[in-house]
Design a protein that fits this description.
four-stranded antiparallel beta sheet; 28% helix; alpha+beta; 197 residues; 8 strands; single chain
Length: 197
Amino acid sequence: MHRQTLPPRPWPHDPRCAQTLRGFSLLEALVVLALVGVLMAIAVPSLSDLRQQHRLQARAEAFLSSLVLARSEALHRQQRVTVCANAAPHGDSCDPEGRWQQGWLVFVDSNNSARRDPGEVIVERQDAMPEGFQLTVTNTVKSYFSYGGEGRSVSLSGAFMAGTWRFCSANLPHGWQVVSNAMGRPKLEKIPTKDCD
């Protein structure tokens, strides 16, 4: 039986391997870098928008949580707990003008005034809205929203309260709104930016 012998494989230092072992040329490397740069330039604005969208959604979710907290505290304490627009970005009193953009307070409203008076316990304080974000509210809850000891939303006159808070940015395709019904149960909804006005 005749065994066929194959020629020996060339070693890497063999000149016959030069074509198979060569790397990228400088021109090829520059073209690849240019393509990566173009792709990054396209991706960065959309990533920035996505980050802004998440920040806006987080603020709306924070407000929803504040309403849920206020309702829970009212039931637990069996007394009125109020959420109000903060008078100053880091203050501890309610803004009668209802500038919710400055942040909001959740407090135990011991004297049922819908205003935080000295000595009334602050349950939670939320910071002002970041620059470029807007927070608007319906007129029915201009400066405060309260829960009575039964966990229902209640105004100073004893009537039910319902309201809508809209979290928007002109630079984003949609915003968020927190809606509280007549029973005081809040929910979060996505809305198109055109509904923010």
